[in-house]
Each structure stands twice: as structure tokens, then as C-alpha cells.
């Protein structure tokens, strides 16, 4: 038996409301990042700040990530078809992995340019413009990242959450660059003899280190599901407790296998029931099991194989048995007689 949770009917060419919501917030990220890239490049080149230019590169990577996320949620929202019977959810995991690799590349480039800037320091002009654009960047990215987190958590979208973390990292790095430029600006006003230009490339290196950390976390998160790793221990515990709540009609369970694809979960398991139950009653138990799990998870496909509890208590059955030892002995004697 295979049930689909929180999915539109197979073959429906229209996007569900959930998928439209994901696409809208992904498009908002594309628009905001496009604007910030242009602003940061113009200001960074105008004042000669490597930290502002590094932030422009960071936003450029975020823009590319936002485009990838937008395309990913559009593709992942397609219903299962003949060539992809398990849906298109893996596209979100692939997009997250690609985004992480892009971030690693950008961070390496920033560190290289910053090192060059430290050894060949150049004067900064109109630093106040740099402070202003970093303030605007922090505010815009804080707002957009909150929207992405809200929708990403609600829809369990790997692509949107990856994009949200990108922008949230940009909030912190923009704030760091703003503080660095602010110190240079104030130093020039109150301590004109003091050379604080080194703060600019050092701030850029700090940006790069934070980007490396975000890229590492994103790689682990995205690649884990690409390898069909099991669900988290908390999620597995929830599945087990829901199945256990069906005892004594369900006498045991084993061979639980789980994985995740994008926002969708998959679970396969064997249920042990009374050997005397009719096919109809066994089917009702699998229906109830599936519905219980669908209430606990926003999107899950459950495949259940029903087995008769014959009382022979083989090792793999005992390990997942819901019956007390006396009850197991009673079942065993009943079948032996």
C-alpha cells in the first residue's frame, strides 16, 4: 500500500498553492539580490573598498543561488510521472549542493583579493556611501531571509531554507563590513593621522570565513538526503510511537526504512497482525497507520507490508514486538495447538 501526503493528484499540471507560495518567495529573493548586487558593485568600485566588492560577490552568489532555488522549487513542485514515480523532490537537494559549492568558490576568491589588498593598501574615498549600502543590504536581506525561513519551514523546502541561510549570512557579513567601514570613516574624522585602512580587507576575510561555515553546513544538509540517509532520530521516534499506539491490533513492526527527497519523506515497514484477520481488516489497519503518520508529517509516502503473526517469534520479529512475553507465549501455544 502506498499513500501520498500533502501532494496534488498525480498528473495534475497545475501548481499547488504550496508550490506557488514557494515560487513567489523565491522570486522575491531573486529581485532583492539583483538590486543589491548592482548597488554594491557601483559603490564598491567608486570608493575602492574590497570589503564592499566582496559583499557584491557574496550577493552575486546569493543571486545565483536564488535563481537555482527558484528553478528547483518549480521543478520539485511537478507531480510524480512515469519517468519519476517518486516525484522530483531531489532537485531541491541537488540545488542546495550546487549552491554550497558556489559559496566555497566565492569565499576563496574573497580571501585571495583581501590578502592582495592587505599587502598593497590603497586609499578609500567617500566611505560613508559604503556604510550606507551595507545598512540597506542588512535591512533588505533580514526581511527577505525571514520570509524565506517562514515559507521554507512551513513547506519543508531544502532549496528555500538554503537560500534563507545565504541571505541571513549576508545580513551578518554586511553588518560586519558596515562596522569596519564605519570605524575607518570615524577614524578619518577624529584620528586623521591613524591609518585604519587594514580594517577593510580584514573585514572581508571575516566575511569569507563566515561564508565557508555556511557552505559547509549547507553541503552536509543537502548531500545527506542525496545519499538517501535515514530520517532524523526524532522523526524515527515519532514514526515508532505512532505505530506502537496501534497495539494490540498491531502486534509488532520491523524492517523500517526511511529516506527524504526534498520536502517529502518516504517510509517503508512491515506490520505484524493477527494471522486470523481478514484482508479487509488488515487493509483498514494499514490505512489508519498511514493516516496517523500523515497527520504528524506534512508530506510523507508510506508503504506497508502486512505479515501474519504466527507465534514462531523469530529474532527479527521479537526485536520489534509490541506484545509482552506472556502474550507472546499465549500466541505461540495457540498456533502450536
List the helices and strands and how they pair.
Elements: E1 2-3, H1 17-47, H2 50-76, H3 90-119, H4 127-155, H5 158-190, H6 199-226, H7 233-244, E2 250-261, E3 264-274, H8 279-296, E4 300-309, H9 315-318, H10 325-336
Parallel strand pairs: 3-4
Antiparallel strand pairs: 1-4, 2-3
Helix pairs in contact: 1-2, 1-4, 2-3, 2-5, 2-6, 3-5, 3-6, 4-5, 5-6, 7-8
List segments where confidence is low: pLDDT < 50 over at least 5 consecutive residues. Answer: 1-14
Structural class: alpha+beta
Largest sheet: 4 strands, mixed
CATH architectural label of the largest domain: Up-down Bundle
- Number of separate domains: 2
Bulk shape: elongated
Number of strands: 4
H-E order: EHHHHHHHEEHEHH
Helix content: 55-70%
Please give a handful of descriptors for the protein shown.
alpha+beta, Alpha-lytic protease prodomain-like, 2 domains, 66% helix, elongated, disordered N terminus
Question: Can you give a write-up of this model?
Answer:
It contains ten helices and four strands. β2 and β3 form a beta hairpin. It is elongated. It has two domains: 220 residues, Alpha-lytic protease prodomain-like, CATH 1.20.1510; 104 residues, Alpha-Beta Plaits (2-Layer Sandwich), CATH 3.30.70.1350. A four-stranded mixed beta sheet has the order 1-4-3-2. The longest helix is centred in the middle third of the chain and has 33 residues. By secondary structure, the protein is an alpha+beta fold. α1 packs antiparallel against α2 and α5 runs antiparallel to α6. It is 66% helix and 10% strand.
